Amino acid sequence: MRKRFLLLPGPAALVALWLVTKLGLSPLKNYDLFFHLAGGRFVLEHGFTRVDPFSLTGTAGWVPHEWGFGVACVLLVKLLGAAGPALFVSGLVAANVLVLWGALGRAASGPRGLLAVATLAAVLAVQSPTWPQERPYHLGHLLFAFAVMAVLAWRAGNDRVLWAFPVLGVLWANVHGSWLLGPALLGATAVGQALDVPTPESRQRSVKALGFCVAMFLAAGLGPDGTAIYLYPLHHSVLPSTQTIVEWRPLDLDMGASWAYLALFGATLFAVGQAPTRKVASLLPTLVLGIAALKVQRHAPFAGVLLGLALLEHAARSERRFALPDSVRRLFEGVDRRVATWSAEARGNVWPAVVLAGLVTVHARTPLPIEAGVRHATIPLKVFEALRKLPPGKVLNRFVIGGPISYFAGADYKVFIDSRNDPFPMAIHDDYERLVWSEPGWEDVLTRYDPDYLVWDTVNPGNILLDHLRTRGGWREASRDGEYVLWIRDRAATATPP
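Given the sequence above, the corresponding C-alpha cells read:
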C-alpha cells in the first residue's frame, strides 16, 4: 500500500472533517436546545417528575423522553463551557456520516465508486438542514445508522448482532423520540428476509429476529419514563398541535433537501426496476418509511438512508449498462476507478476525531460561560438577565422563547408555552394563537393567565399584541434586546378602583 494513503481522508472522512470544524466552532443558536438544557438541569437537581416544572399551563403532563440529551449537554457545559453542546453535535453528525459510509459500502457489496459517493451526497443533502441545529435528533440519526449496520450484518448471516438491539433500545428511547424506528426496521427486515429466502432455516432466523424486535421495544421501557414511553411517539404524532409544527408537515418543496429526497426516491425506484431480482428485506422498510416521509418530512433523514441502501444494493445486482460513447464511457470508468481506489485505500478517517479532540482540549482548558457562546442575534440575553433580577412570576411569552426563559431565568419564572409542545393541551395552543393574532377572546386569555411579565418580539406578528397592550396601558418596558422586549405588569395602574 502506498504510504500517501495513510494520512489521506476518504470521501466520508473529508465531509466529517469539514462538519466537525464548522459545527464545532459555531455559536449556540437553536431555541430548543435551551429547554433541553433546562430539563437536564432540573433532572440532575430534582430528579424526574411527570408534572411540568416550567409552566402552569402544561397540564397534559411532562414526559422527558429526551432527558439523556439534556443531561449530557448540561454536563458538557460544566466541562467545556458554551462549546460543549456544539462539540457534542459536531461529533454526532461526523460519526453519523462515517457510519453511513460504512453501511453504504456493505450495501454496494463492491468498490465504492462514483455511484456510492453520489448516493452518500444525496443522503447527506437530505439530512443537511438538521446539521446547524443543536437538537437530540442527531442522536436519533446516529443510532438509526447503527441499527442499519446491525441489520445488514444480520442479513449477512451474523445472528449474534441481534443482542445489540435491546441495548440499543434502552439507549435510544432515552435520548430521542425516533426510537420506535429501531424495532420497526428490524421487524420489517425480518419479515422481508423470510419472503426472500422461503426456507425453514430462513424462517427460523426471521422468527428469532422478530423476538429481538419485541425485546428492543420492551427494553425501551426500562428508562425513567417507564411504560409511558411505549405509546409516546404515536401519541405525540397524532396531537393536533403537532400538525402545526413545520417538521411534522408534508415534504416542503420550497426546500432543496426535499428535492434531494425526491431525486433519491426516484433513483431508487429506477435501480429497483432495473434489477433482475428484488430484495423484500430492504424494500419493505424502505417503502414504508419512504412513503411516510412524504407525509411527515421529519422522517426524511431516516428514510433517505434506507433509500440509499436499497439503491446501491439493487444497482449492484443489475447487469444492464447505459449505451455511452466510447470516450465518455472511458472517462466515466477512469474516474470511477480512481474514486473507488481513493475510497478503498484512504486511511485518514481518524482526522475528524483528531480535530474534535483538539477542540475539546482547548475548551476544557478555557471554558467560556454559556452566555458568551450563544448567537446574540437569536437569543436575547439582556432580556433574560433583566428578568432574572425580578421576583419570580408568570411570563407571557412567544412559543420559541419559552425554553431559553426556563434555562437562563430559571424554572421559577413560569412560561405560558414553549416548543416542547406536548405538555400543553390544545386549549393552550388555541389561546396562544388568540394572543398572537389578537383574535376575539384574547383579552379573556390575558385575564385568565394574569401574567406578571411579557417577553415578546417586536416584529410582525408580535407587534400586534404589543400595540394593543400599549393602548390599554398597565405595562412598562424594562429591557430590550434585538427583536425582543421585556415588559413588567404595572398592577397598581391596572387595579380596579374601589
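The mean pLDDT is 90. Try to locate this feature in the C-alpha cell string yourself.
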